[in-house]
Specification:
heterotrimer; A mainly alpha (308); B mainly alpha (448); C alpha/beta (386); A: 308 residues; mainly alpha; two-stranded antiparallel ribbon; 3% strand; globular; C: 386 residues; alpha/beta; 7-stranded mixed sheet; 5-stranded parallel sheet
């Protein structure tokens, strides 16, 4: 059976795809934690981060690089991507969310406003950056196999994706659990009214939450654009998958988002091999539905305040 | 009102106070200038992947940028003037008693308004191009019908459904199955006139709604949203992949058009769009009448109670799960109806049942005014009309930039939608002053 | 009270509007010395608007050249209609062109939109010549005014399969399609012919994405001699990149949807694209020495190189202009339909001449290969097989 033959390689593939989902899912989960709403435009934040990081790297080194240069370039791209992501998340919050918050608008109005912002943003990106795929200059040898785990080949990009994703999770976990800002975020997530009575500036916390989510998505966007490619619609699929992953793990829960992303990635890799590539999404959503039926608040339960 | 009694020196001082830009004005100034620059970029030249900043650079060359910035500043001046002059100009508002209000709006006003609207709905399509008529059928009328159905789920019961288009697909494929032997590989052993499919599609879609809703309606707000999203995706993917059943991505071709054969009345819907439009108009009016009756009925009040506070409703003895299922089934069945009409226009393929289509229906409902029956129909007319008219006014590729901007601006300046229902307006007013939620899903920054 | 009114409206309208002058060979708009050519294709939305842009830019160039050279006694105008490549926008887009009284239409480009739009053109009696809709069934559905200048999927699928079996001598082939109307059609005919030749075939479909990591593992797991992708270059590029990245050594092929220089960029550069074969029932303008003038004129007008289907759209329009030359200064839509079906015009990509069904006669399938980061023509597959 080819499935057993491919098993370890598929597991590694699933883990690397899943960690990308997880990085994006963190942004959904953070915003959900403090606002209880799905940020539908988060996928465009991811897209802008991808373009910005990629264009920056290409601008600095059009021919790419090798060795330590490439490590530096990747770090540079991640930083620029993260900054662009943070900036676009900030702009998004100021234009599509803050005015509604001031009016005490219903939750669905936020959802639709974000959908409008998403249409606006990705089509504008298509206008400015063209509608073809944009590839990064070669930064390392794609084919180089570093080592094997069982029968699975571990390549540089696998290590890269995995390493960056884990680093981000750890950073975010520390930020939420061990800093003043994190404490404020958790307080707002638990009870925003009480938090504001305790002297926390709820508005500022919300803006910061958006920016933190944007930084992660932007860096994730660069990673994705560098390994695959960037295009104006690049956010849509990973966005919807990451959103699914966040719910799967228990939305509002940072570790849940990470777990949900990885589970989703692995399930997709297995499902695609066993049933055919065209059933990947069917399997992914079926797993989601089943998990929610038996654990109605996701794998690890919700609440940013408690479980994180 | 109070300005009438101030003496001249006081008025002068007040004027100076008013003229001094406030902090909010400074914020507005920046916003106006930035807005002007964004407009300059959106209406400017295209860039490309090789030269990503070229488009922006060319859109913002000196004269053009200056022109737009001056426009932005002019807008700001108008806004400030509005703030200063507005209160001076505003006539004292009369507080009318409820009785006077009733006298001012005579009993015949409402029916007359409906008659005029109906007259416009009947007469207007005859005056426009055939492309416009086609768009009225495929975009406006079908989405109005879909919106009316989704409105029962989202607007009446407060349940977020992101996979609503699946029921539309079920209606369409049911039609192919029963009315043609060639449209899709699977077909019934007999062939029926599409008119008989209306009740079947209604039942099939409602059943699908119950099957989906049964296990999932226990889930709260956003979990329900994502499960319905998953359901919608699964239905579309199955339609696309099951080539031996649905003909896959190649779609269903050759469903017969609708026809009536009742004694002396014989009529066949052909290729032209107007007959479909009038049929849809009839169905939409029936559905509107039925749903406004539903909204005023015991069921409607029960759904409103669930929307506003599910726990309280349950405590008062409302069987919430049963009512939520009912809302789901009613919404789904309307969608199935729309599917039948869509299918009888000869050809469809699974790309019409995408997640984006679900989102568009939801946007129609919220844009028009959640919970408001007239609002939803108006939402479909305005949004789809906007898309249709943008076709020839802006470059095709930029169409959705403007579309997105309009949706966003609408939500920012009028989050309640074009024509909010009276019940909803009251809830929104209450939530604005901090009493209760704006909808059943709780309002943001207001964690349960 | 409302109800009877609405029904009455239904009844009365049906009488007056049902047969709107069908088969109307309206003496087309030669008003003020201009005649309008319609174009229908995806110009926005999620279904590869780039392909629509490729098409309309080809049409634009042909029209501009005809106007500049004063080939016709009137000025040609272009009327674009965006169908977003989707079935539900198709009829509206088609009716717009009919409303605008175009003399003939180049398009629709996608098969789904074509199926939905052709009844409108048939009814109006307006010629519709598609540069790119390859679904086999299209010419069998009774559309009276439809022809296409591209070979249907079965022709290309068969030649590609023959080459894989006889020349590449593959024993095991992995056939992957993109789950679209176009992709599933092409893979179906490819696989049928491969099986007939005794080649073992593994089929899979995958929705367009960028992340082909686990699909690649699956492909390599079956250890194929050749992989054929039925789909567009925006996905074939990333797939080639992923396959090369995972160490795939066999042959890599795709069809006309990937036959574009952008494929090499999308694959992440020549290193990943080199050696890939592309089959297409078209000569390619970009690399044909005869077409240098076309490429430079195209670039001057549109600011980009011709892409997939630009050449076909250009040829279809030029053949139309050729037909119009013979129809005097007041051509009618019905005369164009009759004359176009009898046209014999040598275009850039092929000779345009139609069978009675509306297929382009004698479709030759060419084989291309990427060598040193450039696409080169290896020749006609029928010649290569000899």
């Amino acid at each position: 059976m080819s499935f057993f033959h491919n098993f370890w390689q598929l597991t590694v593939d699933g883990l690397s795809t899943g960690s990308l989902y997880a990085v994006i899912a963190l942004g959904y989960t953070l915003v959900y934690g403090v606002l209880q709403l799905i940020n539908f435009a988060h996928s465009e934040v991811f897209m802008f981060g991808g373009f910005a990081g990629l264009f920056a790297v290409r601008g600095v080194a059009p021919g790419g690089g090798t060795g330590w240069t490439s490590v530096g370039l990747i770090a540079f791209g991640l930083i620029i991507g993260a900054l662009a992501g943070g900036l676009s998340a900030f702009v998004l919050e100021r234009t599509a969310y803050a005015p509604l918050r001031r009016r005490g608008a219903p939750k669905l109005a936020y959802l639709i406003s974000a959908i409008g912002a998403s249409y606006f943003a990705f089509n504008l990106a298509g206008k400015e950056f063209g509608r073809q795929n944009v590839n990064a200059p070669g930064l390392y040898d794609n084919n180089k196999v570093l080592f094997h785990i069982f029968s699975a080949k571990i390549q540089i990009r696998t290590v890269l994706i995995f390493g960056v994703a884990i680093a981000m999770l750890v950073l975010l976990d520390r930020l939420v659990n061990a800093t003043r800002l994190g404490k404020a975020i958790r307080a707002v997530a638990q009870d925003s009214d009480t938090a504001s009575l305790m002297g926390i500036n709820v508005n500022r916390v919300i803006v910061f939450t958006f920016i933190v989510g944007g930084l992660l998505a932007g860096a994730g966007g660069f990673l994705y654009a560098q390994v695959f490619s960037a295009s104006y619609t690049m956010g849509f699929l990973p966005g919807i998958k990451a959103f699914t992953a966040a719910v799967l793990g228990g939305i509002g829960n940072v570790r849940g988002a990470m777990l949900g992303g990885i589970v989703l990635g692995v399930v997709e890799a297995y499902g695609g091999d066993l049933l055919g590539g065209n059933y990947v999404d069917v399997v992914a959503f079926l797993v989601l539905v089943l998990v929610l039926l038996f654990r109605p608040s996701g794998l690890l339960g919700e609440r940013l305040g408690r479980a994180a | 009102m109070s300005t009438t009694s101030v003496s001249p020196p006081q008025a002068g001082q007040r004027l100076r106070e008013v003229w001094r830009p406030t902090k909010a004005d400074r914020g507005r100034f920046i916003a106006c200038v930035l807005l002007a620059l964004v407009i300059a970029i959106v209406t400017g030249k295209d860039g490309s992947g090789d030269q990503p900043l070229q488009g922006i650079k060319e859109s913002l060359h000196l004269e053009r940028a200056l022109f737009f910035v001056l426009g932005g500043i002019a807008l700001w001046v108008l806004l400030v003037l509005g703030r200063v002059v507005g209160p001076l100009m505003r006539a004292p508002r009369m507080q009318l008693s409820a009785a006077t209000n009733r006298a001012l709006e005579p009993r015949w006003a409402r029916p007359l308004l409906y008659l005029v609207l109906l007259g416009v709905a009947i007469w207007y399509p005859r005056t426009i191009s055939t492309a416009g008529q086609q768009s009225l059928v495929n975009d406006v009328a079908i989405y109005a019908l879909l919106g009316l159905g989704l409105n029962v789920v989202v607007g009446f019961a407060g349940l977020l459904d992101l996979g609503y288009i699946a029921f539309y697909a079920i209606g369409a494929y049911t039609t192919s199955y029963f009315t043609s032997k060639t449209a899709i590989p699977w077909h019934a052993p007999f062939i029926w006139n599409p008119f008989f499919i209306f009740p079947i599609a209604l039942i099939a879609a409602a059943l699908a709604g119950v099957i989906l809703g049964g296990p999932t309606l226990r889930l709260r707000g956003d979990y329900l949203a994502i499960v319905t999203l998953g359901f919608g995706e699964i239905v579309q993917l199955l339609a696309k992949n099951a080539q031996g059943i649905t003909n896959g991505a190649r779609g269903s071709f050759g469903t017969p058009p609708l026809s009536i054969h009742l004694g002396p009345i014989k009529y066949k819907w052909g290729l032209s769009s107007l007959p479909y439009y009038y049929l849809l108009l009839g169905i939409i009016i029936l559905v509107m009448i039925a749903f406004s009756a539903l909204n005023r009925s015991r069921t409607g009040r029960a759904l409103a109670a669930i929307r506003e506070d599910e726990v309280a409703a349950e405590a008062m003895g409302v069987p919430t799960l049963r009512y939520k299922l009912m809302a789901f089934a009613i919404g789904a069945s309307v969608s199935g109806f729309a599917g039948v009409i869509f299918a009888t226009e000869q050809f469809f393929d699974p790309s019409s049942f995408s997640f984006q289509a679900s989102i568009l229906v939801l946007t129609v409902v919220i844009f028009g005014g959640m919970g408001s029956i007239f609002g939803v129909v108006l939402g479909a007319v305005v949004l789809q009309g906007l898309l249709y008219n943008l076709k020839d006014t802006v470059p095709a590729n930029d169409r959705y930039i403007y579309f997105g901007a309009v949706i966003m601006l609408m939500m920012v300046f009028r989050p309640q939608g074009l024509l909010p229902s009276r019940r909803r307006s009251r809830e929104l007013a209450l939530s604005e002053v901090g009493i209760g939620h704006a909808d059943g899903m709780g309002s943001p920054t207001d964690a349960p | 009270m409302l109800l009877p009114l609405a029904l009455a409206a239904c009844g009365s309208s049906s009488k007056t509007t049902s047969p709107p002058a069908s088969g109307g060979s309206s003496s087309a708009a030669a008003s003020g010395g201009t005649v309008t050519i319609g174009f229908q294709g995806p110009l926005s939305g999620p279904n590869s608007p780039q392909l629509g842009i490729n098409g309309v830019d080809g049409v634009k160039l042909a029209i501009q050249q005809a106007n500049d050279a004063k080939k016709l006694p009137y000025t040609l105008k272009l009327d674009q209609s965006d169908d977003q490549g989707s079935a539900d926008q198709g009829p509206t887009a088609a009716r717009k062109l009919v409303d605008d009284k175009v003399i003939a239409v180049v398009g629709p480009m996608f098969s789904g939109a074509t199926k939905a739009s052709e009844p409108v053109f048939s009814q109006a009696g307006i010629l519709s010549v598609s540069p790119s809709a390859t679904n086999v069934a299209l010419t069998t559905l009774g559309f009276k005014t439809f022809v296409r200048v591209i070979a249907p999927d079965n022709v290309q699928g068969k030649f590609a399969a023959d080459y894989i079996a006889q020349k590449l001598k593959a024993k095991k082939v992995f056939s992957l399609d993109d789950n679209t109307d176009y992709g599933t059609g092409l893979s179906k005919y490819l696989e049928a012919e491969l099986k007939a030749k005794g080649v073992s075939v593994t089929h899979d479909g995958i929705d367009p994405t960028k992340d082909y990591t686990s699909e690649t593992t699956k492909i390599i797991g079956t250890n194929p001699d050749a992989v054929y992708y039925s789909g567009y270059y925006a996905q074939f590029g990333p797939l080639a990149k992923a396959l090369k990245g995972a160490g795939y050594k066999g042959a890599l092929l795709s069809g006309d949807g990937s036959n574009d220089d952008q494929f090499i960029k999308d694959a992440g550069g020549p290193a990943n694209a080199n050696g890939a074969y592309l089959t297409c029932a078209c000569g390619d303008a970009n690399i044909d020495p005869k077409a240098v003038a076309f490429v430079s004129a195209y670039k001057a007008l549109n600011g980009a190189n011709p892409g997939t289907y630009s050449g076909e759209a250009y040829d279809a329009t030029n053949a139309l202009i050729e037909v119009l030359k013979g129809l005097g200064d007041k051509p009618t839509a019905s005369a164009v339909v009759d004359a176009y079906k009898k046209v014999d015009y040598t275009g850039l990509t092929k000779q345009i001449k139609f069978t009675s069904a509306g297929e382009v006669a004698g479709s030759a399938v060419y084989l291309y290969q990427v060598k040193d980061g450039k696409r080169v023509v290896l020749g006609l597959i029928s010649d290569l097989l000899k």
